[in-house]
Amino acid sequence: xxxxxxxxxxxxxxxxxxxxxxxxxxxxxxxxxxxxxxxxxxxxxxxxxxxxxxxxxxxxxxxxxxxxxxxxxxxxxxxxxxxxxxxxxxxxxxxxxxxxxxxxxxxxxxxxxxxxxxxxxxxxxxxxxxxxxxxxxxxxxxxxxxxxxxxxxxxxxxxxxxxxxxxxxxxxxxxxxxxxxxxxxxxxxxxxxxxxxxxxxxxxxxxxxxxxxxxxxxxxxxxxxxxxxxxxxxxxxxxxxxxxxxxxxxxxxxxxxxxxxxxxxxxxxxxxxxxxxxxxxxxxxxxxxxxxxxxxxxxxxxxxxxxxxxxxxxxxxxxxxxxxxxxxxxxxxxxxxxxxxxxxxxxxxxxxxxxxxxxxxxxxxxxxxxxxxxxxxxxxxxxxxxxxxxxxxxxxxxxxxxxxxxxxxxxxxxxxxxxxxxxxxxxxxxxxxxxxxxxxxxxxxxxxxxxxxxxxxxxxxxxxxxxxxxxxxxxxxxxxxxxxxxxxxxxxxxxxxxxxxxxxxxxxxxxxxxxxxxxxxxxxxxxxxxxxxxxxxxxxxx
Length: 542
Known about the structure:
Layout: H1 4-20, H2 28-34, E1 36-41, H3 57-66, E2 71-78, E3 81-91, E4 94-99, E5 105-110, H4 124-136, H5 140-146, E6 156-160, E7 163-167, H6 175-178, H7 189-195, H8 204-207, E8 217-223, E9 227-232, E10 249-254, H9 258-267, E11 272-273, H10 278-287, E12 291-296, E13 300-306, H11 316-325, H12 328-336, E14 340-342, H13 367-376, E15 383-390, H14 394-409, E16 413-420, H15 422-430, E17 436-442, H16 448-455, H17 470-480, H18 485-502, E18 505-517, E19 521-522, E20 525-526, E21 538-539
Parallel strand pairs: 1-10, 3-20, 15-16
Antiparallel strand pairs: 2-3, 4-5, 5-7, 6-7, 8-9, 9-10, 11-18, 12-18, 13-17, 13-18, 14-18, 19-21
Helix pairs in contact: 11-13, 12-14, 16-17, 17-18
């Protein structure tokens, strides 16, 4: 039973939306409705600065609409929507950019007419201050930009008010793409400096609750946990065509209950939602009245992880045995209704056919093989273990846990399923205190070596399995700076083959991002941050 405050939030949300759409055809109110986009979401935005530790994914999405970056990824059609192109960039604040022949220098020519929301011109000094902040402050940006060898202010140079230069010590394939990600935002440095203090030289305190951007939208109202209203920036120049965004206003409404969000979209009281329950998506799809853009999250994955530093999961044959015991098809159906891309039953054995990752790995259920491997590992009579998952993902995770427990019992492994609160699960993963667990993650820059470097090397949070393989570490170091496509392809295939052989984790699938919207909405794009980019959307006939 929801709490009284939650029930009030639902009632309030429905009232807001129902009242908002009552308008006479041709009236000013009806015109306003046509020019307004309403999104309903379960989540909230807790910071207006996406670089702050603890910023939610929704905060990432908001920043794409409020701030600009030097460059942006392009997009291409897929089905009835679009997907981002991870290997193609265009200018955003940059009118153009060039890369030196040796790959060590990037030169950006800024747009002459780009302005911040307060009318201040965007200059190379603003870019310099912003990137200096990103690599120098205690924020999420520093560690991310370091994945592209962007680590110190000395790398960033103002040539003139509209020319900016970035230099590297050696070519890095991730340097330029890192300037297009969520954290690489460009601030109005003059405004930010006025809000800075000796104890807070980067104005992090002020920018957590205020903005200093040049993006497509400004923030009209910000009520955390309730709604955010965005107003179109009529002077925005960051789009492909240099024109303002299609919608004049955006309302982002927090509605906790999935069924209520589904009902609001179905009735036309909201325009779009991207976080409905899979069962609700199936129901709405069967009725055929709404537009549904389903995109496999090709830069994400769900997995079962082992702590490879602790027995019995430090034994590769134990991991192989569990991989051979799981009923993958049943898991896929029960957890996400087969709405996604499977990462099991790959049609290869010792070497993958492609260098793309994640890809379907060569695992399938074979209980006889699982029992034999367990016996070879010295556990012919099985063992006992825990299997943990984040209680916030229970709708998906509980079926996986139940089927995993049932399957492993058939080979003698007794599993105690543990449902762990969100914050506690995050702490356990950070401190490597869970031996066997379910998790999901995403890579903003979805190249094979990036995936492996982030998720399968080093003593870091994202190396869920604490896998320590010297050859993998060497390969990721080489591939990061490898400019020869054939050599990079070979390095990537070797990484994938090693992961298949040693099974540090069991890849399950890439779930769909199901964006459910009014049939009148066009332009939805699946972006690396998995949030709605309102700059892409338009309403037919308006």
